[in-house]
Amino acid sequence: MPVxxxxxxxxxxxxxxxxxxxxxxxxxxxxxxxxxxxxxRDAASRNLSSGLLASHxxxxxxxxxxxxxxxxxxxxTRGADQPILSGLRYILDRGLELADDDSPPREGWTSPRPPxxxxxxxxxCA
Length: 126
Fold this sequence. Notes:
By secondary structure, the protein is mainly alpha-helical. The chain is 60% helix and 0% strand. Helix 2 crosses helix 4, helix 4 packs across helix 6 and helix 5 packs antiparallel against helix 6.
């Protein structure tokens, strides 16, 4: 897994901001369409909001992703019209597969824990 300094800035931004459930919920809504509807249904079936599930998957991705996953994420953001949303969609698509992985977390960079209070997290949703 790459270290924080080795990740493109956009990838670091996705992991840091979308680890917050409020930001993640807004980002999933911004993706919209069939993907957002299906993701929200999946979250509801787990008794979670879309933001909670998405932020969990983002943090889990940061801990468990293999080098190929990080490369795929970088590729998903490169040249995209909306790189953060494109990268988040890649993480969420891949995240459910990684969630079933029982192996210990990989050493290296992980995202910080989300704050206990959302404070003014809504300001990051613009």
